[in-house]
Each structure stands twice: as structure tokens, then as C-alpha cells.
Amino acid sequence: MSFPDRPLTAMIDVAAGPPDCMAYERAGGWEAVRRALKNLTPAEVVDTVTRSKLRGRGGAGFGTGQKWSFVPKEPASERRKYLIANADEMEPGTFKDRLLLEGNPLQLVEGMILAAYAIQAGHGIIFLRGEYHLACKRLDQAIAEARHEGWLGENILGSGFSFDIHVHSSAGRYICGEETALLTALEGRRATPRSKPPFPQTGGLWGTPSVVNNVETLCNLPHIITNGPEWFLALGTGTDGGTKLYGVSGRVCRPGTWELPIGTSLREIIEDHAGGMLPGYGLRALLPGGASTAFLDVTALDVAMDYGSVEKAGSRLGTGMAIILDDRTCPVGMIHNLEHFFAQESCGWCTPCRDGLPWVERLLMAIEAGTGEEEDLEQLDRHARMLGTPGRTFCAHAPGAMAPLASGLKLFREDFAEHITQHGCPLQHAARSLERGRDDQHSY
Amino acid sequence: MSTAEHPLPDDLRADIAALVREELHPRGASVAALRLVQARFRWISTAHLREVAELLRMSVEDLDGIATYFNLLFRKPVGQHVIMLCDSVSCWIMGREHLCAHLCRTLGIRPGETTEDGAITLLPIVCLGHCDHAPALLVNETLHGNVDIASLDRLTDTLRGTLR
């Protein structure tokens, strides 16, 4: 038997569409569920996953086996528990889970069966962002097919374990990606995060034990159970195990997503896989793992994209999807765009976040428009410090929002100062005069 | 059939009742129920909201809190087609402002508005997860990537020619 080195995407053929149950099985699918339900106890599944050192792929990087270990151990038949797939992919610059959802939905279904068996949950929910229409259709199809073939429902494979999956199509709010806000949304309330404890594992959806795992995390499970934790650990280049879906967007030659060993360097991802910068554009800086990670500059290109290394470099791995700032795009404008997003998506529950983020957004807007003043920079520094420290706001939304701001204020200090002394964006002025030359009618 | 007392058609009432039966608590069906109403009427009127609230055994205010919380639930009428142009960072870098200005000019509206003929509503939307094909937009339920001025013009022409 051969061991795959790109387990997550091996069966994905974007042009051909997702495999059906038969094709999935022919390519090695359902092997893990067979093995787990027939030969392994739930505790053995937890142990296998713990030994693989799989960490959450949604951004926080918590150990998956450890996360499961806090769930009360009663069998699914004796206590209502939930296993929830977090498919609310809304981190700007992130397009990895959509690939897994659209490309191989049965892999997610199998991963969910394994996770549910491990924590003995009888109820599965896929919390899907409302804009993912194609993913929704394919998930519904895959689940119906899996149910028809007996992979979901009562007494799966005669094991006595019953489990089924329901797709919850959300209606669009970034904060729903935060696991306690996600649970609140499922309960039909405004999706504000909850204070912990109780942790979801003991008091989650409707007060019952619940685990929320990211789509990519769950998709790793069939391969860990089939090929073993040692194989998984060996896939990574550093201390973390497995592969990671990495991606690049911005002005590079080939923007896209690639499954690579976790710990691949930024340089390899950007230069080899994304093909480097488009002609005429230089790399100025980047957000390594989505909008809520701190900027890294070109000196960080050799950083390994694993949890520890990116943190050591002053940012976070986040979703592993890099956004490139080129040398012809205004960093102040980019940060204004980011903070507009975070201000809009604040749930409004706690005052510092609800009032602070729009304040930050307005200051940046003024600076970009040319009406900024010297004191505005101090005000931004103060916000970055006050809102950026975890514990001063109710959840991690504001600290996430401050990561690109705080790092950007340091990295692009001169650009900020120039905007203020020149009363506007130097790059925007250049772009506008270029535009006027081309099109007299054009107005911003 | 809908009546003054029950503005929701019977089949929709039945569908919402079925959603409620699947949930541990009725309010768990609130987003799904509101989405069903919107799928039929394109937006959620106060009369419909009232009736859904009753079916979910929630107060109207409580349910309106949900309806006004989510980006994709509309509490105002929208056009036959809704264009959602991504305004997040990767699309911004790849020139979405330029496209937005062009759309506003050709449609004669600003983001958040509907064309006079009721054909098209233009809305901003957060990252659509199509950043490797930025700039991206969603038309009703269809995702478009690598959008430029020429493809935008073709798109708006087609939408105006095929009013639902």
C-alpha cells in the first residue's frame, strides 16, 4: 500500500467535480471509518489523533485530540452531544475550506463520522457560510448519498453507533467563525461570543457537550486513522505533523491554494508555487495567515509556515493563506480596508470593540484622504495597544483586528507620516493622474 | 394560499413548521426559516417576520434582532438580481474600487441601492473565498472571478435582458 503525500487534495479534481460514494471508496475512502468502528474504541481514536499532533487548522492551532479529551465520555446513545464542522470560512484572503467542501465533501463526512465516534456524538452539524452556494449543494448531495449507502444514520456498519449530519447554512457574519458565537448562532440568537467556562466540550450547543472543529482539521482524520500517526507526523517538516493547505492572493503570477508539508517556507510558497510577483510589481510585505495576522516584511521570507515559527517571527500562522502587499499598493489604504472589515463585523457586544474599531477605521480613512493629523497616529498606536491586548475585549475579534494595524504602524511608519505631511495618499495621487489621462469620465 | 391574517403561503408555513420540528428548540430554525422566506420573496417584510416569529414562538423583536444581524438577510426590498461585489482585502488590492465605480456609473446607483427598473441591487460583501480569482463577485447564487470592466458590462447587460 502506498502512502499519500498530499492526502487532503489527492481526490480533488476541480474540473471533474467531487467523487461520488463509489469513486470515493475506490480511492481508499471509508477505510478509516471501517477500521475505527470495527477495531478501535473511541478512546483509541482520540489517542491516535493526539499522537499525530494534529492541531486545529482554523487559525487557533489547538491540539485536536486534546480538545476532544474534555468531552464527557458517555456513549452517544446515553447523552446528547454535538460534533460541529466549522465551515464558516470568512477570514479575508482565505479560500482553502471551500476547496475541500466543493472538491471532496465525502472526505469531510468521513472525518466527521470519525470525530463524532471519538467523542461519541450522535448529532453532526456543518456550519456553512451562506455565500457558499455550490458547497451547500454538494454537501447536501454527499450527505444524502452517504446516508443512502449506510455511512450515516442508525447503527453504522452494525457497530451500534448512530450519527447523522445536518447542514446549517448561515447568513453571513464573520464572528460566527468564533466557536462560541457559532453555537449562539445555531441557537437562533444574535451571534455574540460567550464567556468561558463553560467550555463547549461540556456546555456547548443547547448546553450539551459539543466540539467545533475546522473543515481542514476534520478532513485530516480519515488519513490519520488509515495511515497512522507516525506517517502523519513525518509529513510535516518541523515539530508539527501533516500537510497544510497554503494559499497566496494579491499581485503574484499564479494565485492559488496548494497542499504542502506543514512548515514549508514562505519563500517556497510564494516563489515556487505562486510563481513570484507579477512583472512590474515588487513584494513589500504580507499577511501570512489571513486578515487578522500581523504583517511580515521581506526579511521573513525564510520563515517556516508552522505554528511556532510564524509566532516567533511576530505573527501567526492563522489560516495559512497569505495576502501579498505589493510595492504599488498603499499600505495605509490596505490597512484601512482591513479595519473597515473588522469594524463592520464587530458583533457589537462589548464597548471597546464596538466603538473602538469604527474609531480606528475613521482615523485611517482621514489619513488616507489627506485630512489626517500627527495626533491621529498616536491615537492609532493607543488603540492598537489597548484593543490588541487579549482580555480587554470580550473575545479575540479586536486583538485580531489590531494585529495588522499594530504591525503596519511599525512597518509602514514613513508611509503614514507621508500621508499626513502630503495631505493624502502619494500612490493614490499617482494612480488618479494616470486614470485621468486614460479616462476623463472616471471618478472615484 | 396567503391571507391578510396569514401573509405567508400555506406551503411555506408548512416548510417552516417542518424546520421547527427538526430542531431541539424552535428558535434554532430562525435563520433557516428567514432564508426560506427570502428565497421566495427576495426580502423579509415585517408582515412575514411577524408570522415567522409566531411559528418559532419568538417575539417579533427577538426575531428582528436575528434578521437585522446577518449580512445576507434583507429587511428591505431588493431588485430582481443582487450583485454582491467583494470589498475585502485581496479584491481591494486587485482593483475592486475601480469596478465598483464603474458599476455605480453604468447602473446609476450607489452600493446599497436598486436600479429604477428594479432589475439590479448592488451590495458590498465580505470576502467570498475566491481570492485567487480576485476581484470576485456573487450574482444571486453564482460566483464570478477575475472580473474586469468588459465582463462587468456583459454581466449587467445579461441581467437586464433576463429579468426573473
UniProtKB/TrEMBL annotation, chain A:
Residues 332-377 form the NADH-ubiquinone oxidoreductase 51kDa subunit iron-sulphur binding domain. It comes from the Bacteria. Its cofactor is FMN. Keywords: 4Fe-4S, Iron, Iron-sulfur, Metal-binding. Belongs to the complex I 51 kDa subunit family. It comes from Acetobacter fallax. Gene3D superfamilies: 3.10.20.600, 6.10.250.1450, NADH-ubiquinone oxidoreductase 51kDa subunit, NADH-ubiquinone oxidoreductase 51kDa subunit, iron-sulphur binding domain. The keyword Metal-binding applies. The gene is nuoF. This is NADH-quinone oxidoreductase subunit NuoF. SMART domains: NADH_4Fe-4S.
TrEMBL record, chain B:
The keyword Oxidoreductase applies. Keywords: 2Fe-2S, Iron, Iron-sulfur, Metal-binding, Oxidoreductase. Its EC number is 1.6.5.11. The keyword Iron applies. It is an enzyme of class 1 (oxidoreductase). It comes from the Bacteria. Its cofactor is [2Fe-2S] cluster. GO terms for molecular function: oxidoreductase activity. Gene3D superfamilies: Glutaredoxin, NADH-quinone oxidoreductase subunit E. Pfam families: 2Fe-2S_thioredx. Belongs to the complex I 24 kDa subunit family. This is NADH-quinone oxidoreductase subunit NuoE. It comes from Acetobacter fallax. The gene is nuoE.
